[in-house]
């Protein structure tokens, strides 16, 4: 987690869609450019307690994981995705949104180390290696069967109080090490290197075949899937209706919906991959000209219908849907099933994808954005789509330490000497 320098001043910035208060800024108006958040009373604690280790989000809601392992949420809560009991509006037909970040209803004894947000649910990995889930369960995306056929669970902490474990019930698994959330499905990696999926699988995103060669359509609890390699998985990613795994050796496996080539196969050949398939990497990554070693993939991020990976020389490659500028490497509207290099000269330290746009953080603390820009998601001050990576001008005089995305909104956090 982030180490806090007590001599520094820290700030959280937000921009993009805010119709349900997902930016946590106290009002429901969109922000077309990065704006400093005003902390609510619940965040008026020491900098060490509230400093974000991660900011992410789903459809119109956000999740902040603090450096001390607390979870704060903001935005839409009609399915309990904030980890708080939904509250009806006075008209009795709608649910109240939360306009400031406030604590999720988790026990103080639980320390969270990772969070992943789907469209209207959240998966959280704890320090003990268990998975906690809350929000909508209409498609089994919580990975656990709810009593009475309930379709949502807004209060995960209450299950602990009832001595009902929140560990996603997978026989033989003692500890999980990574978790990811798609639109309506979840993924996880166990400490021993097994990959599990659950939730909706109607587009093949569970990666599990059943008799007669058909895909498993859904599963309310995790099921194990097979990778055709002995390499150990280290990261899972989930898009709208597709999934992926990155291994220690930098191999990527993908499966699920391939409508835009997001699984690395020509969609004219395969519209859906039922089982994990190894992604073919660009030839340039295996060249050893001038004594240089071949490039290795070290991290992967998934949007709704596109993907980006980072290599060990801190460069980015993209593929998938391209019509809104998602790939950041061409104004061509044709989807690309082969990864291609994104021309950013600076070294990239971290990157993330929202539904159809992206952020990349450089080693100098600057932020690039590109892709879909409705609601000002790219932070440019307007709503014109951005087809090539562009530095966010209002952050040029800041030192950005981290970036995060929801489905249509963004965050970053900055530091400056006191």
TrEMBL record:
Supply the alphabetized keyword list: Repeat
UniProt key word Nucleus: no
InterPro entries named among the record's database cross-references: RCC1-like_dom, RCC1/BLIP-II, Reg_chr_condens, Ub-ligase/GTPase-reg
Which regions are annotated as RCC repeats? Answer: 10-68, 69-128, 129-192, 193-249, 250-313, 314-364, 365-416
Cite the RCC1-like domain residue spans from the record: 12-412
Q: Which PANTHER family match?
A: SECRETION-REGULATING GUANINE NUCLEOTIDE EXCHANGE FACTOR, UBIQUITIN-PROTEIN LIGASE E3A-RELATED
Protein name, entry field: RCC1-like domain-containing protein
């Amino acid at each position: 987690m982030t180490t806090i320098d007590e001599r520094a001043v820290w700030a959280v910035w937000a921009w993009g869609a805010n119709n349900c208060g997902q930016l946590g800024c106290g009002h429901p108006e969109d922000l077309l450019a990065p704006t400093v958040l005003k902390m609510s009373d619940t965040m008026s604690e020491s900098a060490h307690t509230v400093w974000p280790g991660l900011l992410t989000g789903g459809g119109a809601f956000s999740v902040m994981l603090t450096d001390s392992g607390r979870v704060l949420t903001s935005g839409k809560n009609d399915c309990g995705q904030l980890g708080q009991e939904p509250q009806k509006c006075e008209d009795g037909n709608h649910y109240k949104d939360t306009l400031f970040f406030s604590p999720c209803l988790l026990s103080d004894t639980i320390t969270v180390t990772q969070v992943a947000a789907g469209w209207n649910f959240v998966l959280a990995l704890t320090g003990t290696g268990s998975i906690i889930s809350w929000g909508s369960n209409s498609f089994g995306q919580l990975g656990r069967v709810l009593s009475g056929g309930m379709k949502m669970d807004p209060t995960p902490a209450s299950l602990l109080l009832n001595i009902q474990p929140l560990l996603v019930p997978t026989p033989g698994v003692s500890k999980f090490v990574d978790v990811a959330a798609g639109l309506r499905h979840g993924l996880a990696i166990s400490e021993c290197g097994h990959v599990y999926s659950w939730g909706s699988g109607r587009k093949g995103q569970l990666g599990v075949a059943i008799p007669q060669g058909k895909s498993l359509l859904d599963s309310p609890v995790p099921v194990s899937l097979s990778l055709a390699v002995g390499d150990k998985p280290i990261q899972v990613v989930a898009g709208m209706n597709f999934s992926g795994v990155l291994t220690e050796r930098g191999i990527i496996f993908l499966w699920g919906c391939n409508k835009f080539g997001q699984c690395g196969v020509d969609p004219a050949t395969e519209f859906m991959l039922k089982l994990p398939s190894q992604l073919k990497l660009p030839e340039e990554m295996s060249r050893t000209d001038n004594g240089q070693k071949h490039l290795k993939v070290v991290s992967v991020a998934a949007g709704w219908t596109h993907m980006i990976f980072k290599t060990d020389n801190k460069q980015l490659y993209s593929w998938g849907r391209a019509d809104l500028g998602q790939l950041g490497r061409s104004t061509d509207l044709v989807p690309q099933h082969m990864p291609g290099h994104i021309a950013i000269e600076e070294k990239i330290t971290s990157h993330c994808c929202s539904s159809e746009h992206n952020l990349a953080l450089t080693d100098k603390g600057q932020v690039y954005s590109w892709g879909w820009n409705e609601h000002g998601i790219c932070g440019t001050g307007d709503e014109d789509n951005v087809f090539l990576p562009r530095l966010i001008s209002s952050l040029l005089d800041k030192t950005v330490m981290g970036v995060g995305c929801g489905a249509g909104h963004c965050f970053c956090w900055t530091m400056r000497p006191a």
